[in-house]
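Example record for the data management plan.
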Amino acid sequence: MAQKTTSKKSTNTPAWGESMPKAQFEFMREVLAAPSPVGMEAAMSYGVLKPYFEKFIPKTWAIHQFKGNAGIVIDTHPGREDLTSAMIIGHADKIRMQVRHIDKDGKIWVNTDSFLPCTLIGHEVKLFSQDPKKPGNYRCIEGGTIEALGAIHFSEPAQRTGDKGLKPEMMYLELQMHGDRCKERIEALGIRPGDPIILDRPIRKGFSDDTFYGAYLDNGLGCFVVAEIAKILAKAPLKNLRVLYTIATHEEIGRFGATAIAGELKPDILIGSDVNHDYDAAPGIGAKRMNPLTMGKGFTLTSGSVTSEFLNTLIEKSCRKMSIPYQIDFAGRDTGTDAMAAALAGFDSASTSIGFPIRNMHTISETGHTADVMAAIHGMVETFRTMDKMNRGKGITRDDLKNGHPRLDDAKRL
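Corresponding structural encoding:
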């Protein structure tokens, strides 16, 4: 086996060029491991991130919570409606499977949600159900796997050759039940339709330098980035920019959490923090001529859709000043992220989306690079500092946003 190499970093290398410190990687692992399927995100937002924020935020900051979702917002200047506000959003919810039907032989048929059925076979999962004797108290059931065919011996010839795939309705959870009254015994555990099922693989470091892989980079990574930006800026709080560090919910089924939160707080600037694709390494899409985003070459910044070119330019200038690596992505009608929250909620905000190119999205082996995550953290730290210092130290204004739209009629001819 080839020996794993370790790249050497200069003593003058900035934080975004260094390997992620062990303690920071372990916290990232804790965030991503939190069991937070769609609609049940409090394990991440309340169980991991809220206590983390509470350790370092100044007493003058506030934490907003909500009635209809488990999102949280860390507000640096509560009540300061006079200040320009910037909301940066990560979403805590994970795609999940759900119990659909329990068969008499003990098979638990599942809804595969946003997973490709063929990526699920054989993987260990966790099922969460309520205690039938104590509604509201949840238990975690481990030891099951997701199956479809049972064995190659039972498959159709076309499935053996790969000419025919798997359908969502073929997928079931195998809990190894046997003997009499299998269905009744499963139901006695409190398992019922709608119970969430998530993949069971916490992230670990990859073979190549500064890489990592596992389940649910989408979108614990975006939440981790939001928290780390807040931690850095809490040490030297901004004076002129009100930042709303937001952990949202329900993104995977329509971005409903961010839409509700943004619609209530109405920030002047809104930035989605989410995973993106490593198109350069994505198999089988060469003919589509996708933008060659590449894992390990910096965070991504989206143009197009509803994004603000003025805001994007501010981010680009801040990153160039500090030599923080970034890559330009583009979108057509929809960014596909919580950057759409203001548009969906129907209020005016300068918006954009930042991301981190990953591989194998919505599988158990999502793969990322810590350098991209670090670049996103420090890129946004520098951007917020830039906004705070604009207008001779008075900070960015709403008029800057209103009057900063590019004028193509003034474009110079080449």
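Summary line stored alongside the record: Residues 129 and 259 are 28 Å apart (CA to CA).
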